[in-house]
Amino acid sequence: MKKLKFNLLTGLLLLISVSVFAAGFPPPDKVQETFQKMYPKVTTVDWQRKGDYHIADIRVDGRELNVWFSDKGKWLMTEVDVETLEAVPAAVAKAFMQSTMASMQLEDVRIITFPKQPAVIVIEVEEYNTDTEFQLFYAPDGKLLQTLNVSDTGGEIYPGLF
Predict the structure, then answer these.
(1) Model pTM?
(2) 8 A C-beta contact, residue 21 and residue 43
(3) Digit-coded pLDDT (tens) for 13-23
(4) CATH 3.50.30.10 fits 1-76, yes or no
(5) CB atoms near residue 65 (< 10 Å)
(6) Do the Cβ atoms of 47 and 33 come closer than 8 Å?
(7) Which end of the chain, N or C, is less surrounded by CB atoms within 10 Å?
């Protein structure tokens, strides 16, 4: 029994140390160089690592941005949490308001920008009195690109989705 408790404690401490290590670990020089070129005035950066991605969490003009990079320093996407339909293109807001999902509780609104493809607007909604959540992916012209049920996955947005 003591050995089992020791092994559980050791495993827990290892998991905590790996999580803390990944959260504050500086990215490779190429990633930092690309970031500095994109955001030369930003001085406060919280770096995270998720899989093969390096994410810079920053604030610009009062908005939270998550800027995603590859290990080689390539900018992959930027996620901006805008929180409201008023901050998205009018065509997107109109399309959403005319959809059946508009009757659900609005949870989150994000604009995802990419280096070489059009932006994607992600609207997350939740059914009232349930844990059922959906993400709606819109093109800037209001066209619904995709609807995902993210109830069991948490709804993390990452470059591999696109």
Answers:
(1) 0.81
(2) no
(3) 333 333 333 45
(4) no
(5) 19
(6) no
(7) N
